[in-house]
Amino acid sequence: MAAPRPLERNVYTQTLDCIHCGLCLSACPTYVVTGRESASPRGRVYLMRGVAEGEIELDPVVASELQLCLGCRACESACPSGVAYGAMLERARESVVDAGLRRGPARWLERWALRHIVPHRRRLHALASLLAVLQRLRLDRLVFRLPLESLRRAGSLLPAVPGRLDRRPLPAFSAAEGERRGRVALFEGCIASELFAAINHATLRVLTRNGFDVVVPRGQTCCGALQAHSGDLSFARKLARENLVAFSARDTAAVDALVVNSAGCGAALRELEQWLPGEGAAVAAKVRDVCEFLDEVGLRPPPHRVAARVCYDDPCHLIHAQGIAAAPRRLLACIEGLELVSHAEPDSCCGAAGTYNLTQPDMSRRILDAKITALEAAAPDIVATGNPGCLLQLQAGFDERELPIRVLHPVELLEAAYR
Ligand code: SF4
Ligand code: SF4
C-alpha cells in the first residue's frame, strides 16, 4: 500500500475510521436517488482514501461524486464508527478546487460572490437594496433570461427583500426585560441579516423577553460555512479568525453564550477548532443554537395563543451536525393554541445545502420534491425550521406547487406568542 501523501494525511487517517458496515447508505439522499455506491458515504470515503493513498486519481469523475454530496451529514448520525465525514469532505473539496477540477463562469461567480459580497455587510446591504428596487419594478424576472442556470435558480429562490427599516442593523446592546437572568452575544449572519432580518429581530426580542441582555459585536462577519463547503477553506479560515477576534473581545468574552439562529452558521462556529486548531475552542464552547439555549435556561411561558397547525422540520446542520432535535419541538409545544404535527421525513435533507441548490439543481429538486410531498401530506399551515437555506428552499417548493404553507423560524412563532 502506498504511503498517504502528506497534504492529505489528516483525511487519510480519518478515512480509516470507516469499517465499511454500510449503515449510512439508506440515510444518504444521493445514494437513495442514484443507487450508486460511489454516490454513497461509504463509497465517497473509499474514494477519498484512495486519493489520499495515491491509488485513485483525483479526476473529474471522483470530483463530480464529491460535488454531488450535499454535505448534509446524515451519514454521521447513522455511522456507528464516528466517521468525521463533514470534516473530510471539506478537505477533499479543497483538493478538488486546488486540482483545477472546478472551473467555468458559474464557479468563478460563486467564488467571487462568497469572497467579495457575502462577508461584507455594506456590499450585501447595497445589493439587497438594489434587489428590492428591481422586485418593486418587477424587473427581477429578467434573471430568468440569463444564460447561467445557477442564476436562474437563485432568482426563483429569492424571497421579497424586506424594507430598509426592517434591515436596519441590530442595536449593539439590548437590555433584558423583567428579572435579569444573564448576558448573551448574538451572531447576526450574513445573507440572513438582509433577507431574513425579521428572524434576527425576533431572536433579539425573544432573548430580552426571557431576561437576557444581548450584545451584538460589531466586528463579526460571515461564519465561513458556505466558503468551506465550496472548497475555499483558506478563506473560511480567514473569516473564522475575524469572528474569533470579535467574539473574544473583553465585553463579549464574558457572555453566558454565543447565540446563533442559523443551523449552518451554528455548526461552523461550533467547529471553529477544526479550522483554527488550538485557537477556537473557547469561543466554540459558548456557541448555542437559539432553541437549544432557550430550552436549556427554561423558556418564560409566552402569554398569547398562536392558532396554527405547525410541522417542525429538522435542518441537517442542527440535527446531524449539532445533535439538536428535541429542543425546538419542546419550545413550540409551549405555545398555547399551536398544534404541533409530525410528518414522514422530518430529518431528511431538503436539498438546499448551502449553494447546492444552485450548483446541483437537478439533484436538489428531486430531494426537495420528496420533502414537499411528505410535508404536504401532513397539511400544516406553517412549517418551522431553523436555517435560512432551508427556509428559502422549502418556501420555493411550496410556492411551486401553489400550496398555502408558510415557512417560518421557530423564534418567529415564539415572538408572535410574546407579542
Ligand atoms: S453528507 Fe449527506 S449526501 Fe453526503 S454522503 Fe453523507 S449523507 Fe450522503
Ligand atoms: S456507517 Fe460509517 S463506518 Fe459504516 S460504512 Fe458508513 S461511514 Fe463507514
Could you explain how this protein is built, in words?
This protein is of the alpha/beta class and 419 residues long. It folds into four domains: 6-98, Alpha-helical ferredoxin (Fumarate Reductase Iron-sulfur Protein, Chain B, domain 2); 105-157, no CATH class; 173-296, Glutathione S-transferase Yfyf (Class Pi), Chain A, domain 2 (Up-down Bundle), CATH 1.20.1050; 301-418, Rossmann fold (3-Layer(aba) Sandwich), CATH 3.40.50. Helix content is 52%, strand content 8%. It has 24 helices and nine strands. It has a five-stranded mixed beta sheet with strand order 1-3-2-4-5. Strands 7-6-8-9 form a four-stranded parallel beta sheet, with helices on both faces. Helix 23 (388-400) links the parallel strand 8 and strand 9. Helix 1 packs across helix 3 (41-53) and helix 11 (197-209) crosses helix 24. The radius of gyration is 21 Å and the shape is globular. The chain starts with 8 loop residues before the first helix and ends with a helix. The mean pLDDT is 92. It binds iron/sulfur cluster (2 copies).
Query: What is the strand content?
Result: 5-15%
CATH architecture of the largest domain: Up-down Bundle
**How many E-type strands?**
9
CATH class of the largest domain: Mainly Alpha
Distance between the termini: 65 Å
